């Protein structure tokens, strides 16, 4: 647990066992004090405010550490009266001395209201009667008051934490220098390059590698036929030649970082139909979509089907069915075979890589493969 935004999601019992309520209260308390001081300072030095704001802004940056936030780096300000960074920080100080001061003061009042309620002596006055009936009535009223105080105190904790979180988010938004945005942009760019590298690796494994494996199997079969029946080897050699050309074409496309050509030109239905034509097991394709999904989703779905059809040879299947539908905001692709079942991602069937590919797009992969079959692979991708 490193930040207040994570702590707010905890259930009450877990939250109250941490120091986050105290840290949030310390943040709004110090915020109320510094907001009042800032208000006085703005009134007295309104003309030189942007030039004299640096100490106050520095305090506000470092107060964020109370909530587990790294203090934003100090920006490089070229001129206090012309730099938009300085005016943005000054705008935060104005808010801090007005609206945020009221927010912090209200949060402090909410935090201490249960204490004032207890200090009001409600229980003592209710239990202070002379006869037994009054005493028991006072006890009941006192217990109810204490329960009410506990409930109010828990609610007050969340109110204080939410007020602190709102104040802190506004501070981070206005006090973070442009360099932070540049750093975040660079980080996203690095992540995108890394994601693209992994995508190419998966495409090589799930696409071109499977074609080369089919080519190798065809050549082995042709070699076995050459000695006994050279005529029977000729169709196998022609098939191998076609597979080699297809593998080279797909490698060329992958190097360029694009989809398989048929997928790019004709869409998922045509691309899956081509996979079915090359499959080693008779495959029925039922892909009905109202429109083409995003290209990244099409690519993920295509390679899911390619890997699933390549894995069918391990299952002794006689028939495979591939279906794809749009269900609400998702593309659902299902590959079913009538093989022996027992598929396990831990056995190196390529399913782990498929799961990674699907997860990278925010989708889910489900596998049902009981012993004896059938095996059903269902992939859901956000449209």
Automatic annotation (TrEMBL):
It catalyses: ATP + protein L-histidine = ADP + protein N-phospho-L-histidine. The keyword Nucleotide-binding applies. The chain crosses the membrane at residues 89-115, 135-165. The keyword Secreted does not apply. Residues 196-263 form the Signal transduction histidine kinase subgroup 3 dimerisation and phosphoacceptor domain. GO terms for molecular function: ATP binding; phosphorelay sensor kinase activity; protein dimerization activity. Keywords: ATP-binding, Kinase, Membrane, Nucleotide-binding, Phosphoprotein, Transferase, Transmembrane, Transmembrane helix, Two-component regulatory system. Its EC number is 2.7.13.3. It is an enzyme of class 2 (transferase). GO terms for cellular component: membrane. PANTHER family: NITRATE/NITRITE SENSOR PROTEIN NARX-RELATED, NITRATE_NITRITE SENSOR PROTEIN NARQ. This is histidine kinase. It comes from Virgisporangium aliadipatigenens.
